[in-house]
Amino acid sequence: MELTELTITQAHEGLVKKEFSAFELCQAYLARLEKKDKEISAFLTVTKDSALSQAKKVDDMILEGREIPVLAGIPCAIKDNILVEDVRCTVASKILENYIAPYDATVVKKLKEENCLILGKTNLDEFAMGSSTENSAFGSTRNPYDLSRVPGGSSGGSAAAVAANLCLYALGSDTGGSIRQPASFCGIVGLKPTYGAVSRYGLIAFASSLDQIGPITKTVEDAKIVFEAIKGGDELDSTSVESKIANFRVPAARVQISNLRIGVPKEYFIKGMDPEVEKVIKEAIKKYEEMGAKIEEVSLSHTECALPCYYIIAPSEASANLARYDGIKYGLSESKGKDLLDVYLKSREEGFGPEVRRRIMLGTYALSAGYYEAYYLRAQKVRTLIKDDFDQAFKEVDAILTPVSPTPAFKLREKITDPLTMYLSDIFTVSVNLAGLPAISLPCGKVGKLPVGLQIIGKPFEEEKILAIGEILEKA
């Protein structure tokens, strides 16, 4: 087998048995990256020298007979809205084009403690705002399955990099589906953890009550390994939680398929959904039934409100979070303005792309005097109703199965000029973020040559259960 086709477990075993060195593994990925990424454009920055230097350190540890962590010497990539000390962090925006991160995000610090190899930073929709990785100021990423199609977004660079074997795993962030939807489009596994399960410290904020960092991997087992490394409380992030996820590793064997009650929401199989995608998803659900799980129809009655609710809350929080990019503190500064206000306006006009400007304007309007109660406050009340729907459903079932996206990967430029059509790509994923739940996307079939992802949604802090349920299907 090619070194670049290994899973994390296989690569770790190969390193421990000295079948190959960490330096050789790193070189294999860098060579493939140099050859393949010209057509995919998954990476914005490649950190070749530091990766090779770290690989030598891991090889020295192995030669000294020291026990190495599972992720030691394993090449990975980091979405370019997560800080890696002394490495450029652009958020795919002109406004931060030359920004060098002054410190490590907590998740990066944890991976470095495991002696991982960071190959570089991956492309995304600017400030993580998008569903196709076409909103990047530095060009679109392409889907490895079909270069004429999008990889999904906003973590499209991370998903494409894993799918094309340019890295062994990657970190992404998920605000409304930004890990799960690209994982679905690229035929790999993406885990969006419970809100608070993973520290957000060092993640450049989009919508703070929705953002969550998670792993994008080749297999469910790999997702478990990476999640185990990055999860946990952090004193630098007051929303992170430790205690509820302390006991993590539950082998798939301990989740008895015959005892499983799986919910299928009737509101998720809607008019306008690709019939071939619906067929693949229903076949996956049927496999669980054939293996002994009890399938029950559940109702999430406020599902139709989720998208409008999300597109009020997320832009409102973005409007507040992005106010810091003023051309004064850091980042792009158009300093030739006639006064301070002119500097602010010109810097933001030149620095932000059209989608970011659109969402800032939407959010500022929703928060403005006279409209706050009508929009933002009402959206927060609807958000509570959406969470209540899930709470009620989980009284009857252990997990919920849904599609990830109503279509497979669409063509580049197909939806870029129609924001509303693009926003509909997230129709099955935004509810999970609004309710703060964990969910995983895993490949369950194809439409033609294009992958389709199944979404498994779980109760808060039950990542181990949805991963185990995913592993059952993956092995089947």
UniProtKB/TrEMBL annotation:
Assembly information from the UniProt record: Heterotrimer of A, B and C subunits.
> InterPro entries, alphabetically?
Amidase, Amidase_CS, Amidase_dom, AS_sf, GatA
What broad class of enzyme is this?
A: ligase
Q: What is its EC number?
A: 6.3.5.7
Instruction: Supply one GO CC term from the record.
Output: glutamyl-tRNA(Gln) amidotransferase complex
Alphabetically, the GO molecular function entries are: ATP binding; glutaminyl-tRNA synthase (glutamine-hydrolyzing) activity; transferase activity
Keyword Acetylation recorded: no
Pfam families under this entry? Amidase
Q: Name one GO biological process term.
A: translation
Q: Which reaction equations make up its catalytic activity? A: L-glutamyl-tRNA(Gln) + L-glutamine + ATP + H2O = L-glutaminyl-tRNA(Gln) + L-glutamate + ADP + phosphate + H(+)
Q: State the family it belongs to.
A: Belongs to the amidase family. GatA subfamily.
To which species is this protein native? Candidatus Nealsonbacteria bacterium CG01_land_8_20_14_3_00_12
Catalytic center residues = 79, 154, 178
Report the function annotation for this chain.
Allows the formation of correctly charged Gln-tRNA(Gln) through the transamidation of misacylated Glu-tRNA(Gln) in organisms which lack glutaminyl-tRNA synthetase. The reaction takes place in the presence of glutamine and ATP through an activated gamma-phospho-Glu-tRNA(Gln).
What is the protein name for this chain? Glutamyl-tRNA(Gln) amidotransferase subunit A
- Extract the PROSITE patterns matched here: AMIDASES
Tell me where in this chain the Amidase domain is found: 24-467
Keywords, comma-separated and alphabetical: ATP-binding, Ligase, Nucleotide-binding, Protein biosynthesis, Transferase
Q: Which SUPFAM superfamilies match?
A: Amidase signature (AS) enzymes
